[in-house]
Write a structure and sequence with these properties.
By secondary structure, the chain is of the alpha+beta class. The chain is built from ten helices and twelve strands. Strand 1, helix 1 and strand 2 form a beta-alpha-beta unit.
């Protein structure tokens, strides 16, 4: 039907790049596109099927700029929200980089133009993300240089983390979603804390202990069960020690428990697995 109406159909990055049509319909996935980590890993792979958000943005601009009446273009990086629902900071970081690449493409296109306004915002915050200092693994004191501080030590009162934490977050090899997808493909007898620990430690820079893997897999009676509810129908729910009312997405909550466990090492805290009323920024350029 779309082809009959003059649309050029694109099913991969190569057909998108080569299309000369002024009307393009891109169909690249039955549901979600590649997550941020996978997108980063395959960005320079010539065999990659899906175009990146940056490539789709560039193509959209090259088509729409031909309209003498001007245009409105919306570019969404919706999986930032999905990663935040999972409390998955590594994937969220890669998703934000993916969005940043698309924004930079628009800003480059806008150079030397005086007829364009770029607005960047969000419809809500998700997860209540933040970095925080902790009482875990307090740093040892370091002597200060110079005669003035002779005999004194620089010794923070709390663990404030360090800049290497960002590199470790970026180095995550699989999203939490794909970590548990791999775990769930194991046979019932192999869905053990030992195997979860192995998969997590192979794919993140914040290794967890066997006891922590057991904690992630613990369940309890669902006190808020609603029969027939998409998420609340289960008789058993992942076990939260507090604020369980604000973690709502059923078995998906194993990912949020993993985030709580690794937060001890990454200095990352989350308040929920859903949307919050935290104000969002609005940026304008042009």
């Amino acid at each position: 039907m779309a082809k009959a109406q003059g649309y050029d159909l694109s099913f991969d990055q190569h057909s998108l790049k080569s299309s000369q049509s002024d009307k393009i319909l891109g169909l690249y996935s039955y549901s979600a596109m590649l997550d941020g980590i996978t997108s980063s890993q395959t960005k320079n792979d010539p065999e990659r099927i899906q175009p990146t958000l940056q490539e789709m943005t560039h193509k959209a601009l090259s088509v729409l700029e031909k309209d003498e009446d001007g245009f409105f273009l919306m570019v969404e990086s919706g999986q930032i929200d999905w990663a935040a629902h999972d409390n998955d900071a590594g994937t969220m970081l890669h998703e934000m980089i993916k969005f940043s690449d698309a924004i930079n493409t628009v800003m480059d296109w806008m150079k030397d133009r005086d007829d364009t306004l770029l607005i960047v915002s969000a419809d809500h915050e998700t997860g209540g993300f933040g970095f925080a200092y902790s009482r875990n693994d307090l740093p040892e004191g370091k002597p200060l240089a110079g005669n003035v501080f002779k005999g004194d030590e620089f010794k923070p009162q709390w663990n404030f983390g360090d800049l290497n934490t960002l590199d470790k977050i970026y180095a995550q090899k699989k999203s939490y979603n794909n970590i548990f997808r791999e775990f769930d493909t194991l046979g019932k007898e192999n869905k053990t804390p030992e195997n979860l620990q192995k998969i997590v430690n192979e794919n993140t820079e914040f290794p967890i202990t066997l006891a922590e893997a057991r904690r992630v897999l613990e369940t309890e009676e669902n006190k808020y069960r609603v029969k027939g509810h998409k998420y609340l129908d289960s008789k058993k729910f992942p076990r939260f020690e507090e604020r369980e009312e604000f973690f709502v997405y059923g078995s998906e909550l194993r990912k949020n428990l993993l985030a709580m466990v690794t937060g001890k090492y990454s200095n990352i805290v989350w308040s929920t697995d859903n949307h919050t009323s935290t104000p969002v920024y609005v940026f304008a350029y042009g």
